[in-house]
Design a protein that fits this description.
- By secondary structure, the protein is an alpha/beta fold.
- The protein has two domains: 4-202, 3-Layer(aba) Sandwich (Rossmann fold), CATH 3.40.50.1240; 223-375, 3-Layer(aba) Sandwich (Aminopeptidase).
- Helices cover 35% and strands 24% of the residues.
- The chain contains eleven helices and 13 strands.
- The chain has helices at 15-19, 32-45, 59-72, 95-101, 103-108, 123-140, 152-163, 230-248, 256-269, 317-329, 345-353; strands at 4-10, 52-56, 76-79, 145-150, 181-187, 190-198, 223-226, 274-279, 282-290, 299-307, 335-341, 357-364, 367-375.
- Strands 7-8-9-10-11-13-12 form a seven-stranded mixed sheet, sandwiched between helices. A six-stranded mixed sheet has the order 3-2-4-1-5-6, with helices on both faces.
- A hairpin with a 2-residue loop joins strand 12 (357-364) and strand 13.
- The termini are far apart.
- 41% of the residues are buried.
Length: 376
């Protein structure tokens, strides 16, 4: 038998990583950091010889595999056998919501090999699928230099198979990083790891990490709930007012009655359009989604993205954007749109970092205002 080289690459940072949502088979985009990681990966792979390139068939892996395709001048063979673990009914849910709705399944998710999300795959299901796919690829390309591009849990299952031949060892595996490269040699039915989880090529690429304020325990992940009753409407009005004051320095120009009228109009159009970001049982922020307000087909308007003062500066804000992306994408919209005061430098920086672009400048009540949009 001839030695086969096997490169295993995880996709670059994608929306599920940034927005903290369960993305298994869900077809999400790469983030701004992920796109930079792909560029670095292409440079990393230029010195390698790859004979055949396989990728999971979802967008984030195909785009990552594109780095290898470009660097090594080779076509991508897409296959659903290399997909991430199916999340079933959890697909595109915030992780915290999955845990709240199905605590027993969430507890066993990474611990018990036969535990699975509702209508999704267990670790054992995944292990059998990817190990079979991997052996099929190796048998077809004996003696070649093979590259497969896949996902975190799927690669963890592959490595449990390669290193131990036992899915139960998955619990002891460290998660491989986004855009990481692992190299294993295969000969005479045996695997020999050369290196695992090489991420030296993406050192210095900014990676987003949310944190928790003091007094909160667990993971820095939000869940979202809709407005429920008059008290919640009043909370939403206060959030809008506080945001106005934070930007403009006073409540001059803000009308509680107008805000209430706008919020009730949004709720008449879509009952889930006004949402609270929740950390455990505490309201951490507010999201106002005006589904009826858009300039052209395809735009989903955001009237407010706000974190309460005590939750600012911890990196939680992208999860509110993730909720807006999920909300509008499910309704067939292809862009997000919002307005930002030209004086709100912090917000401008945040939106630019998250792929919004300025499409219009105009005079508003308190000075110049920008319209910003983001492709989703």
């Amino acid at each position: 038998m001839v030695k086969t080289k096997l490169y295993i690459i995880r996709h670059a940072e994608a929306e599920g990583n940034l927005y903290r949502r369960a993305h298994g088979w869900y077809d999400s985009r790469l983030t701004k950091a992920g796109i930079e990681q792909v560029k670095r990966l292409a440079g990393r792979m230029e010195s390698e010889i790859i004979d055949v390139l396989y990728s999971s068939d979802v967008r984030r892996t195909v785009l990552t595999a594109g780095a290898v395709s470009y660097a090594c001048n080779i076509d991508i063979k897409q296959t659903d056998t290399l997909r991430e673990r199916s999340m079933g009914n959890w697909e595109d849910m915030p992780w915290s919501e999955c845990m709240r709705l199905n605590p027993l399944a969430a507890y066993g998710f990474g611990r018990e090999i036969d535990s699975h999300p509702p209508e999704g795959e267990s670790l054992l299901d995944l292990y059998e699928r990817v190990s079979s796919a991997l052996m099929g690829i190796l048998e077809r390309h004996e003696g070649k230099s093979v590259c497969v591009v896949s996902h975190a849990t799927a690669i963890g299952a592959m490595l449990a198979f390669i290193l131990y031949g036992d899915i139960c060892e998955y619990r002891n595996m460290k998660e491989v990083g986004n855009a990481s490269v692992s190299l294993v040699e295969y000969e005479n039915g045996k695997f020999v790891p050369v290196y695992i989880n090489d991420i030296t090529h993406i050192e210095g690429v900014r990676k987003h990490r949310a944190r928790l304020p003091e007094g909160f325990e667990g993971k820095a992940e939000l869940w979202f709930r809709s407005v429920d009753g008059k008290a919640d409407v009043q909370r939403a009005i206060e959030s809008w007012k506080n945001s106005w004051i934070a930007v403009h320095g006073s409540d001059a120009g803000f009308s509680d009655d107008s805000a209430e009228s706008e919020i009730k109009r949004m709720l008449r159009v879509e009952k889930n359009a006004v949402r609270f970001a929740m950390l455990n049982e505490t309201i951490a922020g507010t999201l106002l989604l005006d589904t009826a307000n858009y300039e052209e087909d395809g735009c989903g308007h955001i009237s407010l993205v706000m974190l309460n003062d005590e939750f600012r500066g911890y990196g939680l804000a992208p999860q509110l954007l993730g909720e807006a992306v999920s909300y509008y994408r499910a309704r067939g919209r292809t862009k997000l749109r919002l307005h930002v005061s030209a004086t709100n430098k912090r917000a401008l920086r945040f939106y630019l970092e998250n792929d919004f672009v300025v499409t219009k400048k105009e005079d508003a009540y308190q000075g110049e205002q920008y319209t910003m949009k983001k492709e989703i």
